[in-house]
Design goal:
Layout (H helix, E strand, L loop, with lengths): L6 E4 L4 E4 H9 L3 H9 L36 E7 L4 H9 L4 H7 L1 E7 L2 E9 L5 E4 L4 E3 L6 E3 L5 E5 L2 H11 L7 E4 L6 H8 L4 E5 L4 H13 L4 E4 L10 H23 L11 H7 L10
Parallel strand pairs: 9-10, 9-11, 11-12
Antiparallel strand pairs: 1-2, 3-4, 4-5, 5-6, 6-7, 8-10
Helix pairs in contact: 1-2
């Protein structure tokens, strides 16, 4: 968000524009109502975007909304990547329930720069060389935005919206190894980019979020891959936003049970953050004859 130039850009959507167009999108109103809200300094509920008053640029009637290109926003520059070791990042992944060996296998410790300031985050690389970046205080990425695929030469593929859900899935299955293919969209808008890889599989297991975006992405996958059997796996973690939330809930429930048993037996138990066999079984795609998952 650039309040000086009255511009915004969403790296996840790959779209941008003026603050006026942002208000129109957020509030689902026309330009006249958006201008009124900006001039009156109206704000959205806490936790969502608030905009500065006094901005009023009316797009041409019937014309396209103005779009801001990525070059107009401060660039995020990758400085280096190394094995994941920093305690803050390891602790962040642990708080999300991710098994350390799983994180080490698929993530890196990435140092990056924005406006001359250096930062570091958990990095997950995409097929085009860009990075998805996560830390306790940051969620973003570097260009180019793209999907991440794992090709094990299988006829079955598992698909996820983001890499944290992919890591959560592998943590639920740990210590089993992944033998089927996988695709991480890194943003639901990247679904068309993933179709050439995903559609070549006769069987597709979709592990998208339990929200409207997840529903639409699942429906889009079914439409774009008509020759494949698309299996919607969201019911396995119904009641939870996504697989990562499901994993965290499983760990908390098991921790409470372990503590209760420990208190009754009056002895300490090892703090095992691994999900139970029942948790693993609930989230796994059904096995096909002759295929390891």
């Amino acid at each position: 968000m650039d309040y000086v130039q009255n511009l915004w850009y969403d790296f996840g959507l790959g779209e941008g524009g003026t603050l006026l167009t942002l208000v129109m999108r957020l509030e689902r109103c026309d330009s006249r109502e958006a201008i009124r809200r900006l001039q009156n300094g109206e704000k959205r509920d806490a936790g969502s975007v608030s905009l500065s008053p006094g901005v009023g640029e009316r797009p041409a009637v019937g014309g396209p909304l103005p779009v801001l290109r990525p070059a107009a926003v401060p660039a995020l520059r990758i400085l280096s990547d190394a094995p994941l070791r920093h305690p803050a990042l390891v602790g962040y992944l642990s708080s999300r329930g991710i098994v350390p060996s799983v994180a080490a296998a698929f993530c890196r410790e990435v140092r990056y720069e924005v406006n001359g300031r250096a930062f570091f985050a958990v990095g997950f690389r995409n097929d085009a060389g860009g990075w998805e970046l996560r830390s306790e205080r940051f969620k973003g990425g570097s260009s180019p935005k793209h999907i991440t695929t794992l090709d094990n030469r299988s006829d079955t593929v598992i698909a996820f919206e983001g890499f944290m859900d992919f890591l959560a899935y592998l943590s639920l299955k740990h210590p089993e190894q992944l033998h089927i293919d996988a695709a991480v969209l890194n943003s639901v808008v990247n679904l068309p980019k993933a179709v050439p890889f995903i559609s070549r599989h006769p069987v597709i297991h979709a592990f998208f979020d339990n929200d409207e975006a997840g529903r639409k992405t699942t429906a889009g996958l079914i439409r774009l891959c008509p020759r494949s059997e698309v299996i919607d796996q969201r019911h396995f973690y119904s009641g939870h936003k996504d697989i990562n939330d499901y994993l965290i809930a499983c760990i908390k429930d098991r921790s409470k049970t372990t503590k209760t048993i420990s208190d009754k037996q009056d002895h300490s138990c090892r703090n095992d953050l691994q999900p139970s066999k029942a948790d693993k079984a609930a989230i796994e795609p059904p096995r096909r004859k002759g295929v390891k998952v």
